[in-house]
Amino acid sequence: MVTLHPMKLINIITSDALEEKLIASFKKYGVSGFTILRARGEGSSGLEADSSGFDANIHVKVIMPAERVNALLESLERRMLKGYHLTVFVADVQVITPEKFTTPLR
Amino acid sequence: MVTLHPMKLINIITSDALEEKLIASFKKYGVSGFTILRARGEGSSGLEADSSGFDANIHVKVIMPAERVNALLESLERRMLKGYHLTVFVADVQVITPEKFTTPLR
Amino acid sequence: MVTLHPMKLINIITSDALEEKLIASFKKYGVSGFTILRARGEGSSGLEADSSGFDANIHVKVIMPAERVNALLESLERRMLKGYHLTVFVADVQVITPEKFTTPLR
Amino acid sequence: MSLSSLLLPAVLFFALGFIAKLIKSDLRFPPDLAKILSIYLLMAIGLHGGYELAKSDMMTALNSIMWALILGFGTPIIGYYALILTRKVNPLDAAAISAHYGSVSAGTFLTAVAYLDNLGVTYETYPLIMLAVMESPAIIVGLLLAAKARQTLAQPALEGTVSPGGTAVISDDDDHGGHGGNNFAALLRDAFTNGSVVVLIGSMIIGAISTPAGMQKLFPFIDEIFMGVLCLFLFEMGSVAARRIGDFRQVGLVLGAFGIVMPLIGGLLGAVIGAEVLGFSVGGTTLVAVLAASASYIAVPPAMRLAVPEANPSFYLTLSLGITFPFNVIVGIPLYHALAQQLVG
Amino acid sequence: MSLSSLLLPAVLFFALGFIAKLIKSDLRFPPDLAKILSIYLLMAIGLHGGYELAKSDMMTALNSIMWALILGFGTPIIGYYALILTRKVNPLDAAAISAHYGSVSAGTFLTAVAYLDNLGVTYETYPLIMLAVMESPAIIVGLLLAAKARQTLAQPALEGTVSPGGTAVISDDDDHGGHGGNNFAALLRDAFTNGSVVVLIGSMIIGAISTPAGMQKLFPFIDEIFMGVLCLFLFEMGSVAARRIGDFRQVGLVLGAFGIVMPLIGGLLGAVIGAEVLGFSVGGTTLVAVLAASASYIAVPPAMRLAVPEANPSFYLTLSLGITFPFNVIVGIPLYHALAQQLVG
Amino acid sequence: MSLSSLLLPAVLFFALGFIAKLIKSDLRFPPDLAKILSIYLLMAIGLHGGYELAKSDMMTALNSIMWALILGFGTPIIGYYALILTRKVNPLDAAAISAHYGSVSAGTFLTAVAYLDNLGVTYETYPLIMLAVMESPAIIVGLLLAAKARQTLAQPALEGTVSPGGTAVISDDDDHGGHGGNNFAALLRDAFTNGSVVVLIGSMIIGAISTPAGMQKLFPFIDEIFMGVLCLFLFEMGSVAARRIGDFRQVGLVLGAFGIVMPLIGGLLGAVIGAEVLGFSVGGTTLVAVLAASASYIAVPPAMRLAVPEANPSFYLTLSLGITFPFNVIVGIPLYHALAQQLVG
Ligand SMILES: Nc1ncnc2c1ncn2[C@@H]1O[C@H](COP(=O)(O)O)[C@@H](O)[C@H]1O
Ligand SMILES: Nc1ncnc2c1ncn2[C@@H]1O[C@H](COP(=O)(O)O)[C@@H](O)[C@H]1O
Ligand SMILES: Nc1ncnc2c1ncn2[C@@H]1O[C@H](COP(=O)(O)O)[C@@H](O)[C@H]1O
Ligand code: NA
Ligand code: NA
Ligand code: NA
């Protein structure tokens, strides 16, 4: 029987123009890794990522321990206050290897 | 301490041939936005999205308030009854800015 | 009122070099289908999926009944013990058509 | 003849892609390559054809178009009843599958052109207009056959969709462009604004009206590198076809046989129309036969997913892409050519 | 004239893409096609231009560069105040939008080149350097205007970002390369290391310094198939433009008019500078006018998302991509050419 | 010499891509571009080579193949022990890294060909077969070395996988084609059905057997635009290499040095075999040296991820892609050419 450990999955959907900055801040908040998916979408700032792909969205996923989540969310909230369009949502997930998600990226 | 608010995340995986119709119906159900990811997969209707990409899947994500979910799910269920291949699942998520997900798309 | 039924969503993020093997094992564990998304990321094994796309990640999603999850997770754990880099996490989701996710792939 | 066909780079690359999958090579083509290449191919033949057609005889052109429509509307009906007779598929699957055979495969058509060029056989340009024309009608017939099938099946959930009134609410609510009388107009539009049709017909018009000076500048792109791009396209499609044939066991022998018999019937019809009715040369007749024999795997599948959702996609994809496409490229083309020689010679 | 412009394959394909979307065709271009094609186009004109420029007059080159900078810094300021006057957008939107008009659209420039070639009109190569130079300054002006706008608006959350001290913590914490004095350096770097700029200037240098033998081998790739690739690029961009124009209602009539008036102002300025100041031929003057008239839709939008996040992207994307781009390709180019004939003739 | 090498467009574009990343340009290449271009490049050289080889001497061809195998099996073993001596990596990392050096980099090979063409140096076609042959053996050696390493390390979880019996259950359960005796066959197949190998050998066969008429039609695609496509490919690979070098600190100085010393050893071995054993001209000898000196970054990494999962990918990717590839393109090729001149001259 595999034992599962609770973790938080932070999801950020935004324009790929912000990618470098997001990644840079992740390392500050001690995440152990991240995954980026290409996305298209529509929201308050209108259509994003038209077929041309010049203007694409990214869907960033970060799995991290609950106790570290708040600091990252606060920094994301500050960005939003500056006007950046970030769609952020958090989900509860379970992992097999908790230690994998607690060792920060080099 | 960032306060989190509960929302529902509706996931729909289907053939990209249905994209336009899905989007159109979203606007009817007052969603505030949506995100589309390209996907491949296999299921009851066999292999979808072979390498050629002629026949691709999409993974559509919509974040919305719990009280609006049912109407959308019912319309999706009606589609399935007509034979459309939709893989639908709902997840609980938490967001920082609930108002963002309650203002319908223009 | 659509009635929702609980299911488990297994997420696996890894190098696309492992795709064929993962799929093959899925069929052994009686999954009804799977979805694959292309991904990039960074983790303990460094940067994966550079822009060249020669070395890409995949994000695999499998929806299955809770009772079948453990067997699949154990096989994934065995792979990890062999050194394979798999980022695995499980989430609770709800579906409209439970039977769809219990009939194994042909 | 069949040998010289097999020694054609285009055909050899198709075979290479096919074999690569059979030997389980990890060769993977980027998801969008085939799409990009097919846009290029349609654009190139369109421009080229339009340029030629501008100088061609209107009467014959219209005549070819008329017969293209007849083939496009006719073959699916033959296919439909043939499939019903096999008793292997339900009417809705039969409708969706047969629609693929009424439409055409540009890849097969271009391979045939390369085959004729290689043998130094000349051909008329009219079959190109027929290619453009034949993409859409089959889709419409498919929908009509599906509507008919639903009535016979009288599936409650679906009945409504053929008699608009019935489930008007549902249809209006969700189903723009879906099946059902009130949406038929939308589907007609879909059939004629299909992406491949737009690229092909649009390029033909551009080829016909743009300044010769302007066209001259395009030839290196649309002519010289054309064969190379076609090889790359067929290389990938070979591997896609091989992957589809994996689902063969699902399709079964009888249905599989349909994937070979149907093109033969189509090829025969096409050859007769090309030779006897349109009075084309051996080359032109071969091409008409190829059009009638080939099955669509680009334009029609998404159209059927949308309009005949009840049909099982792995049936029509395996048949058109996994069986008929390879059969035509390797065996069919030389066969139709030989047939054309009999009829015209 | 305008007719011969419309009968240019490049223009016709743009129109085809545009129409395809209007008639709601399901034609979809793979997400990365336009990106790949634009890298090719920039590489090709860069190599070609660098090769020519190596033989050109340094004085005139420097002079063109200086005036390119003047146009790049000047037009956005004109645009900014014009937009403020319309009272339809807030200062931050005005800053972001006008930055697009100070920069350039390589697609429009290349269409103009094709247009001139088609008419057999010769032109200097200097406008090409100007194209490379004009990508960046507008971005910088945009940031300065935005900083100014924030002060006038004095939005608490944003004030800090213009007076570094204020929200130093926040800025340092999160906002590398974001707006705010301490990050201005970073933004300057971003503006000049922009992808399009690197490809274009890099290719020009390579074209200038590499061995003629080496260059010879590249011509089939960068010359012969060039026009075909441009057509394919404009085909896709036509459909992208049509899709953007869908947001028109959001933009409104007044703002929409700006998307047509602004290029006319720019075109006039450019033509005067090209003819009177730089003393170019009719061809060269037309190209300078096109540079000044065109609005960026590749380099500037992401830069504005990053540096002026408060601005509404659907404003600047709809204007530059949905209105100004089509206007210039269909109507503008012949107009600027006529204007150049007046001034130079 | 080294100068004329640096003034080669192909090399300059590699440098441009490299610099673009160093100056943190936001230039991004679409994820699949490099993949598409590499399929094209392999297809083009394959067709071209096969066409030439059809006319070549069988004896010499077989002899070259034999020595290609010797190099492919030999160099990884040298590399393995060299790495063990450095004491910087564990045996499994050493196995995975050295496998990369036994295999080859088509990109480096093609740059060398462009370099020789530019100097007007002729070369035999045999090295091309060697390129095709050398892709696979190194993968196999890598697996054998890894199996050996696991025994020495005797890691419980892994031991089983080398003595099939041990963890038969687990292996059968999950690990098709994974390491472990019972899967070795599967891995052998993987090594020889590797995508690049299939494209290259398949195209060579097609080039050899297809009708001259058919081939003629392909030359504009595979010859004329070839150099341009190569430049675009190297442009992107330059930026990829620069990105990888970012992980240098992880790799460290000693290991980094290996990325430069190993190709020198390989280059020397290759040059001697090319000149003394195979009796090739200066050009042919240079190419054999390049083959032996270059490290794979396309075919081998995924193979190692699959077969030696315990090894750290950032080690072998940084070494082959971030250090050895740039070193060979900029410094190595001229060096091996000079060496070849010494040995043959
Ligand atoms: N309600 C939503 N559900 C899912 N994705 C959304 C939603 N709202 C916004 N997004 C995504 O977030 C991106 C930016 O949204 P916005 O900040 O509203 O412009 C959009 O392009 C969508 O991809
Ligand atoms: N159990 C599952 N888990 C994850 N994705 C699934 C599952 N079943 C189906 N899918 C996805 O939904 C698509 C359509 O499935 P189906 O309707 O079963 O043909 C497939 O191509 C998969 O991408
Ligand atoms: N904490 C994390 N959050 C999200 N994705 C992750 C995380 N850690 C690893 N990954 C993903 O899993 C892949 C393999 O990670 P690793 O096994 O740590 O090398 C990475 O390339 C990422 O795409
Ligand atoms: Na047909
Ligand atoms: Na401008
Ligand atoms: Na080597």
Describe the structure.
- The complex is a heterohexamer, with three copies of chain A (106 residues) and three copies of chain D (345 residues).
- By secondary structure, chain A is α+β, with helices and mostly antiparallel strands.
- Helix content of chain A is 25%, strand content 39%.
- Chain A is built from two helices and five strands, in the order βαβββαβ.
- Chain A has a five-stranded antiparallel sheet with strand order 3-2-4-1-5.
- The model of chain A has no long low-confidence stretch (mean pLDDT 91).
- By secondary structure, chain D is mostly helical.
- In chain D, 79% of the residues lie in helices and 0% in strands.
- Chain D contains 20 helices and no strands.
- The longest helix of chain D has 32 residues, at 313-344.
- The relative contact order of chain D is 0.19.
- The model of chain D is unreliable at 156-173 and 175-182 (pLDDT under 50).
- Chains in contact: A-B, A-C, A-E, A-F, B-C, B-D, B-E, C-D, C-F, D-E, D-F, E-F.
- The interface between A and E is large, with 30 and 41 residues.
- Strand 5 (87-95) of chain A pairs antiparallel with strand 5 (87-95) of chain C, so a sheet runs across the interface.
- The complex binds adenosine monophosphate (AMP) (3 copies) and sodium ion (3 copies).
- One sodium ion (NA) binds at residues 75, 101-104, 266, 292, 294-295 of chain D.
